[in-house]
Amino acid sequence: MKFTSEEDTYSWAVEFGKSLQPGDKVAMFGNLGAGKTVISRGVCKGLGFEGSVCSPTYTILHEYPNNPPIFHFDLYRLEGGADLYEVGLDPDYLSQGISLIEWPERLEGNDPGLTHIIRIEILNETEREITLEKI
Fold first, then answer.
1. What CATH number is given to the structural domain containing 15?
2. pLDDT-based confidence at 83, cuts 50/70/90?
3. pTM score, two decimals?
4. Which domain holds residue 44?
5. Shortest CA distance to 72 belongs to which of 103, 46, 30, 50?
């Protein structure tokens, strides 16, 4: 799918968010500035969360109180091959909510049980190509 504005990307993410179920884990791949946090905001809105959503770059995890709860990870600052439990990706804990994982490639082979993969390619300053894969 090609999107020509941040607003279009956000609207798509709101609709995608409505389809998610507790236990879903969404990995978002894309360069800096690709729109991963825009998608996270939209997904949270689609799940009914009305609060502020920002990238948890320095805290690694933001947990948003919602029904179901939303776990928003940003693994950018981690070394490659990070351990799942070190960053709070405890499968039993996360099965209660929806997990949004930015920079999942930092996990290098540590499988958190992903259910969806989103890949974002920057085409130019305003356009993005987004692919969604359900696993």
1. 3.40.50.300
2. low
3. 0.90
4. 2-134
5. 103
